[in-house]
Amino acid sequence: RKMELSERLRAAGDCLRKVLPLQLPDTADVPLFLQTVENLFANFKTDKDLQAKLLIPLLTHRARSIIGRMPKEKLDDFDEIKKVLLTEYKITPRQIRTQFLSTTKQANETYQLFCSRLNTLFNYYAEGRGVADNYKELRHLLVADRLKDTLPNDALQYVLSLEGDAWFEPTKVASLADTFVNNCREGRPGQVIDQV
């Protein structure tokens, strides 16, 4: 017997309830929020016709008001809702590029998480410019370079020494930076740390 829409929606909602973000965040984090939701839908193989229905309860009152003005037939399309939200929150490719270039690692985040934020910002910039899937290597290069621009000098020198004449993808740069910071920041290898 084929499951009714309401049964499928309830089953998907139960499955995703504990992993979906609770609510759309501040305007600056809308792309990261939408990318997180989209990744979770892909990871849990959520049917396309359920995605918008699962997204709507996660939205703030303002965001629900915005999408409430959409034509009824577009309310079932996650990509259409995403496009409207990005437009209404005035998140343009140019703003995302500026955010990509100016963002810095937060004190409480790892380089892996920072790398993820950079990748998300770059993806939204590329999508907004219509080159999302055409330049994977270019994206990796630009994100890796931007990530290296933010590294402390000693961590940067460590990564550069391992790269040699080549370059590493951003996840590798992030992993090396985290390894360096976690193992070498207390003191240099072979150096005795004064203890009080």
Brief synopsis:
Helices cover about 65% and strands about 0% of the residues.
- Class from helix and strand fractions: mainly alpha
* Helix count, DSSP H or I runs of 4 or more residues: 10
- Secondary-structure element order, as H and E? HHHHHHHHHH
For the biggest sheet, the summary is: none
Flag low-confidence runs: 189-196
Distance between the termini: 71 Å
Shape: elongated
Helix content: 55-70%
Strand content: under 5%
Query: What is the rounded Rg?
Result: 21 Å
Mean pLDDT: 83
Number of strand elements:
0
List the helices and strands and how they pair.
Blueprint (H helix, E strand, L loop, with lengths): L4 H12 L13 H14 L4 H8 L5 H8 L9 H11 L4 H10 L8 H19 L6 H15 L2 H11 L6 H15 L12
Helix pairs in contact: 6-7, 7-8, 7-10, 8-10, 9-10
Structure description:
The protein is 63% helix and 0% strand. The protein has 196 residues and is mainly α. The protein is elongated, with a radius of gyration of 21 Å.
Keywords:
mainly alpha, disordered C terminus, 10 helices, 196 residues, 63% helix, elongated
